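Exercise: predict the fold of this chain.
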Amino acid sequence: MTMFLLAVALVCACGPTLTSATNKTSCNSMSNNRSCQQEIFSSNQVGSMYCGLNALYDNCNQQCHDSRCHEIECRSLVKCDQNCFETLVCERMSCSSKKCDQYCNPAVCTNMKCVQAVQSCTQITAKTMECEASACHQTCGHQREAYECRMVCPTREGSCDQLVEARSNATMQCERDECDQQCRMGGRCNMTCLNTGSKIGNCKQDCTSGTCKAMICNATNCTQTCSNGDCNMVCPQGSMTCNQKALAESIKLSVMQCHAEVCNQNCSNGTCNMACSAIVKHCYQTCGEGTSCTYKCDAENCAILDCSKPVCFNTTYTRSKGTITTPTLVLSTDHPSASTSRIRPLIRNVFLLAFLFYL
C-alpha cells in the first residue's frame, strides 16, 4: 500500500497537479503546477497542509479518508477545499482564496475561518465558523449525534446563512445586509443580529421543525417564524420593524419584547405574550381562535386584533403625552365576516408581562 501511494505521488508531481500522500505538505516552492493536493488514507496519519503561503497556486485541496485532517492553511488564487470522509474530523481550516469549502460527511468539521478577501465560504456538517467573506454558509447537524455549532459573521456587506438540522444546538451572530437562520429536524436555535456600525438589512429566524430558543434583533427588518416549541424574540432600540409569527399547532409559548419603531405579533396557536415600550410608535398583536394572549403596551399607538371569537375585533389604545385613554372597541375591517350587529363591548385586561428570555 505504501509503495502504491508513493508511486501515485511521483506520477502526479510531474503533471499539472502536485499531489502528496505524506502527513505534511507544503506547497510553497515556485512551480508551474496550478494545483496542490494532499490525500491521506491511513488512520495512523494526521494531515497538515500549507498551500500558497509563498508561491501562488490556483487551487489547494486536502482530502482525508479514514484519517484526521489536522489543518489546512491556504492562500490559493481561485479555490481551497478541505474534505473529510469516513469517520474522523477536519480540525481546522484557514482560508484566503476566492472560494473556500470545508466539507465533512459523516465526519464533523471542527473549525473554519475565512478572511475578508474571500468571496464565498461554505462549511458543511460544522461546529465553528468565523466568516468575514462576502457570502457565508454553514450547515449544522449530524444523523448520529447532536452537538453544538456556532457561526459568527462580522460587520460588512453581504449575506450570512445557517441551516440547522438533526437536533443540534446552534448559535448565530450576524452583522450583514442579509442574515438568515433556519432551524429544522429538532434543532434548537439562538440568533443575534446587532447593528454595530452599518445598518443590518434583513434578519430572519425560521423554525419549521426546530425550536427558536431566542432571537435578539437590531435591524431594519426582523422576522421570527415559529412552527414548533417555544418562541422568544427581543428587538432593542434602534431596530425598525419587528415581526413574530407563531403559526403551527405545536407552538406552546411565544414571547416578544419590543423597542422597535413598529412591532407586530401574530399568534395563531398557543400562548402569546407581548410587551412594547414607550419608544415604540406602533404595537400590534393579532390573536387567533383558541389562543391565550397577554398584552402590555406603552407605545404611541397600540392595537389588539382579537380573533378568538367568530368575529375579529380591534381594541385600540391611543397613547398621548404619557397617558393611555380608555380602550375603545371598533369593528375590524380585516375580517370578512364582521357585522355591525355583532359588535359587543370588549375591554382586554392588561397584564404585567414577565419575560423568561434566555440564550
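Check your answer against the key: DSSP finds one helix and 32 strands in the chain.
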